[in-house]
Structures are given as structure tokens and as C-alpha cells.
């Protein structure tokens, strides 16, 4: 929705995706990246997925999404999505303030889906949250609904992010 031209400008898309993950890695006090590897390829481990866990949700995370430089982005949609994300925190997660473990991103390569990797990545954060007696929070697309329901998550709100006047 936010990056409709990512296939037309893949170098642009990957440059900014890499920058986002660099931003996560540069903030170890805030984020933990848990990586899933496939070890069945001889001596070379192959990345199969990753989860980005936000362990300090109230700590600012300055990031430059490159709105004025990217060719793959729809700026209006991105701004609408970002605004909704900020509002979502206040309407759905604020009651826990900084006492929550938030799944910021979960990615599993299509070749490794439905093999337990996503469950492992999510359970890692669930275990951290349980040790602190904090809830795990996340925002999911419909694609993740089955996994999160399987793991015991409940839907506390549903929202549609949409630019006014668009049907997408």
C-alpha cells in the first residue's frame, strides 16, 4: 500500500529497507532482532526469517524514511499509515506505556512458511514478555492472523488505513 512502485524501483526499495534495519541495529537499547536461519544447507546458514522486537516502546526512534528521495513510495499513503500507527498506540497500547514487548516486524521467507519458524520468532518475544509479566503487543495484517490466533493473541481493534478518496 505504501510502496506500490517497489517492483519498478527495487534498488530504491531495498536501499531504504536496509536503512530501516540499520536503524534497528543502531538502537540495541530499544530493538532486538531475532534471526531465523535454515541450517540444512551444508555449512552455510541461510536466513529464513526475522522478528524485530521493540523492548522500549516509549523511547524515540528517529528514522528517515526518505520521503523526499524515494521513487518507490506513495507519500500520501505512507503519511496516512504513519499517522494511523501513532494514533493506534494511543488508542490501543498506551495503557501499558513502556511495560510491553512490541513485535514491530515479522518476516518469514515464503520458502520457509508453515514450518514453525514464525512461531519460534514470536515465542522468543512472548517468553521475554512473560519473564517481565508484560503483555506482547503487535499490529498485524490479515496475513498474520492465523499465526497470531494460534499463539493465543486476541484482536482488540481492527482498522483500515486508507487515503481519503481512494478505494485501495
- What structural class do helix, strand and pairing data support? alpha+beta
**Low-pLDDT sequence parts:** none
Mean of residue pLDDT?
88
Shape verdict: globular
In percent, how much strand structure appears in the residues? 15-25%
Rg from C-alpha positions?
Answer: 17 Å
**Would you list the SSEs in sequence order as H and E?**
HEEHEHEH
Give the N-to-C terminal Cα separation: 8 Å
What helical percentage do the residues reach? 25-40%
Strand order of the largest sheet: 1-2-3-4
Task: Give the tally of β-strands.
Answer: 4
Organism: Apiosordaria backusii
Protein name: N-acetyltransferase domain-containing protein
InterPro entries: Acyl_CoA_acyltransferase, GNAT_dom, Trichothecene_AcTrans
Pfam families: Acetyltransf_7
Describe this protein with a few key phrases.
single chain; 168 residues; alpha+beta; 4-stranded mixed beta sheet; 4 helices
Provide structural commentary.
The protein is of the alpha+beta class and 168 residues long. Helix content is 34%, strand content 17%. It is built from four helices and four strands, in the order αββαβαβα. The chain has a four-stranded mixed β-sheet with strand order 1-2-3-4, with helices on one face. The longest helix is centred in the middle third of the chain and has 19 residues. The radius of gyration is 17 Å and the shape is globular.
Task: Please write out the topology.
Layout: H1 10-25, E1 31-38, E2 46-54, H2 75-93, E3 101-108, H3 117-132, E4 136-138, H4 145-150
Parallel strand pairs: 3-4
Antiparallel strand pairs: 1-2, 2-3
Amino acid at each position: 500500500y505504501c510502496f506500490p512502485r517497489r517492483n519498478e524501483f527495487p534498488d530504491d526499495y531495498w536501499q531504504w529497507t536496509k536503512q530501516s534495519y540499520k536503524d534497528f541495529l543502531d538502537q540495541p537499547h530499544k530493538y532486538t532482532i531475532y534471526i531465523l536461519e535454515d541450517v540444512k544447507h551444508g555449512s552455510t546458514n541461510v536466513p529464513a526469517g526475522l522478528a524485530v522486537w521493540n523492548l522500549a516502546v516509549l523511547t524515540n526512534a528517529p528514522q528517515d524514511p526518505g520521503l523526499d528521495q524515494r521513487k518507490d513510495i506513495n507519500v500520501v499513503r505512507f503519511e496516512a499509515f504513519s499517522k494511523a500507527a501513532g494514533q493506534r498506540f494511543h488508542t490501543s497500547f498506551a495503557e501499558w506505556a513502556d511495560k510491553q514487548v512490541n513485535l514491530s516486524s515479522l518476516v518469514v521467507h515464503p520458502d520457509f512458511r508453515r514450518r514453525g519458524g514464525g512461531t519460534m520468532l514470536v515465542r522468543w518475544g512472548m517468553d521475554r514478555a512473560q519473564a517481565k509479566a508484560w503483555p506482547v503487543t503487535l499490529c498485524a495484517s490479515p496475513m498474520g492472523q492465523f499465526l497470531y490466533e494460534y499463539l493465543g493473541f486476541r484482536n482488540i481493534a481492527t482498522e483500515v488505513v486508507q487515503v481519503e478518496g481512494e478505494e485501495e
